[in-house]
Amino acid sequence: MDTQGLHVVVGAGGVTGRLVVGHLLAAGCRVRALTRDGRAVGSPAAELRAVDASDPVALTEAAEGAVALHHCAMPPIGRWLSDFPPLTDSIIDAASATGARVVYADDTWMYGRVSGPMTPELPSRPVGRLGVLRAWLAERLSHAAAAGRIRLSIVRAGELYGPHVRSMIAGTVFGNVHRGRAARWFGDPDLPITPTYVDDFARTIAAVGQHDGESGRIWHVPHPRPTTGRELIALAAAQAGHRARVTATTRWQLRALGAVLPLAREGAELIYQFEQPFIVDGSATTEVFGLTATPYAEGVRAVLASHSG
Ligand SMILES: NC(=O)c1ccc[n+]([C@@H]2O[C@H](COP(=O)([O-])OP(=O)(O)OC[C@H]3O[C@@H](n4cnc5c(N)ncnc54)[C@H](OP(=O)(O)O)[C@@H]3O)[C@@H](O)[C@H]2O)c1
Questions:
Q1: Is the pLDDT of residue 234 over 80?
Q2: Which residue, judged by its Cα, is nearest atom 17 of ligand 1?
Q3: Is 52 near ligand 1, meaning CB less than 6 Å away?
Q4: Contact residues for 223 (Cβ-Cβ < 8 A; gap 6+)
Q5: Pocket of ligand 1 contains residue 53 by CB under 6 Å
Q6: For the chain, is the Cβ count within 10 Å smaller at the N or the C terminus?
Q7: Among candidates 190, 208, 164, which has minimal Cα distance to 305?
Q8: Could you tell me how far CA 29 lies from the centroid of its own chain?
Q9: What's the gap in Å between 72 CA and the centre of ligand 1?
């Protein structure tokens, strides 16, 4: 494979996309960073383009000559059902027209209720509308790959944490700990969990985009050994110099909050992940690409530093 060719990153202004751009440039690739407003993405060597990726004609033009099209874009969560399908279809069309491999930044919501580690071989058994949508998007991409329309790599991460990340374990955990307040944990803080450090997600996307020789394969981001919410909060509190305090929020409390807060409604649908072990097994990615995970102590230090900055 031509690993040094042109890589196009869609959603390059997002938290994951910006880091993917950086890793690809560091590996010696040429990178075109697409955002809707053409803004800078923190890597001066990247070529910048303003493109609405839902427009297949504009996207095809922007992807001309690319070896890979990294799909790191996502609409605001309240618009997922209306906006994510046409966005993903447009990426399929552009990849099909240009021959670029699609590298899709995915989550694990399609797996639904599980009792053990999540491996890439698990079937999709989503819980709730958003999980069904994610299962359908992955299926749509996989179908295009199986039909020979595109070459595809899917990269799946668990719940993200890291500087500037928005997730169910971001602001209410690390932001609160940083301010010396009780961390709010959704679900059971004593279950095993493998939060994904956002830079590990980006490194995996960049490596897979350069080196995956197969099509249609699902890669899980490598993780450290499982921790728990309580352990993670204790680690963050020790680093911040505060006493660790945890307030657990149950699904019933989230549901009640959902009557007034739309985001809590989405949270109530997703809290099942924290009522079961949430372990993402990325060992196959380590075996094939040699990628390893950032230790939690290091990731937490970076998040707390971003809250101080
Ligand atoms: N957060 C998590 O815990 C988590 C966990 C696992 C997987 N993931 C997945 O990883 C992917 C990236 O997530 P993220 O947290 O990095 O997202 P993010 O920071 O919200 O960035 C998403 C970017 O997509 C862009 N975008 C939306 N619609 C677009 C369009 N039509 N054309 C071009 N760009 C568009 C947005 O641009 P604007 O700035 O113009 O709005 C935004 O910069 C998503 O699929 C997400 O579901 C996230």
A1: yes
A2: 14
A3: yes
A4: 158, 194, 195, 196, 200, 279, 280, 281, 282, 293
A5: yes
A6: C
A7: 164
A8: 22
A9: 6
pLDDT tens for each residue of 24-41: 999 999 999 999 999 999
Q: Return the structure tokens found at 93.
A: 């069309």
Q: Domain residue spans in the chain?
A: 6-159+196-223+281-294
Question: 96 pLDDT exceeds 80?
Answer: yes
Decide: 187 and 267 in contact? Cβ < 8 Å: no
CA pair distance 103, 95, nearest whole angstrom:
10
160 CA: nearest ligand 1 atom: 3
Q: Which two tokens stand for residue 261?
A: 């807060």
Pocket residue to mutate for ligand 1, from 20, 72, 74, most atoms within 8 A of Cβ: 74
CATH of 6-159+196-223+281-294 given 3.40.50.300, 3.30.479.30, 3.40.50.720, 3.40.50.1360: 3.40.50.720
Distance (Å) from CA 40 to ligand 1 centroid: 16
- Rounded to whole angstroms, the Cα distance separating 302 from 170 reads 12
Residue minimizing CA distance to atom 19 of ligand 1: 14
Are 198 and 22 within 8 A, CB to CB?
no
pLDDT band at 3 (very low <50, low <70, confident <90, very high): low
Say if residues 98 and 60 touch (Cβ distance below 8 Å).
yes
Q: Would you say the CB of residue 15 lies under 6 angstroms from ligand 1?
A: yes
